Amino acid sequence: MLCLLLAGYAGSGFAERADREKPINMQADRVTVDDASQISTFEGNVQLHQGTLLIEANKIVVTKDKKGYSQISATGQPAHFRQKRDGVNEYAEGFGERIEYDSNAEIANFYGQARVKREGDDVRGEHIIYNTKSGVFQVFGSSDKQPGAPDKGRVTITIQPKYKAKPPASDSPTLPAQPSDNQTQP
User: Fold this and answer.
1) I need a labelling partner for 111 at 20 to 30 A (CA). Which of 16, 56, 136, 140 fits?
2) What Å distances lie between residue 16 and 51, 96, 118, 169, CA to CA?
3) Contacts 24+ apart (CB under 8 A), 105-110
4) Per-residue pLDDT tens over the stretch 104-116
5) Number of C-beta neighbours around residue 186 at 10 A
6) Which secondary-structure segment (H or E) carries 10?
7) Which of 72, 114, 94 has the alpha carbon at shortest distance from 14?
8) Closest Cα partner for 24 from 86, 94, 72, 93?
């Protein structure tokens, strides 16, 4: 069940493709597996590793549907994922009070103080939807802006320049050396 979930997740636009073929290692304080309903619940300092993929949460619930697709719901303060991007030496990270992933639709949702970081770029909002097939982000602020929290209802995005600009060449001409007025005669 978890293999199907992670195979879909690892195939995302920012995921290391080789992760799909790595073993899954999980640690938790408690695990409940209900084969009849196809629901597995991992609770207490949950860590899921598969290759470069790391998901950390207080609780992870994995539900498998009749077609074999999985739904994952990770909750925490915040829940966190980190994974190497395919073909480049960089990592993508995501945070949220709740992270949900649908392996059939290949869509990840981050809820509550949601944040996705990649190569210095940083996207924040109350809800982030990331389509892992198309690589399209949708970011939403909160509709219930709180007094005293000026950015609570707003989306914040920081995009780093992709190419560093070269320092400008000096426009001042080089001055020729001039003899000093106070030269001494040999």
Assistant:
1) 16
2) 8, 21, 14, 41
3) 106/8, 106/11, 106/12, 106/131, 106/132, 106/133, 107/131, 107/132, 108/9, 108/12, 108/132
4) 887 889 999 999 9
5) 3
6) helix 2-10
7) 94
8) 72
- Could you count the other beta carbons within 10 Å of the beta carbon of residue 113? 15
Task: Kindly state the helix (H) or strand (E) to which residue 80 belongs, with its residue range.
Answer: strand 70-84
- Give how far the C-alpha of residue 83 lies from the chain's centroid of Cα atoms, to the nearest Å: 8
Average pLDDT of span 139-151: 69
Pick among 1.20.58.1480, 2.60.120.810, 2.60.450.10, 3.40.50.720: CATH of 2-158: 2.60.450.10
Q: Name the pTM for this structure.
A: 0.71
Give the residue among 5, 139, 135 at the shortest CA–CA distance from 73. 5
Every domain of the chain and the residues it spans: 2-158
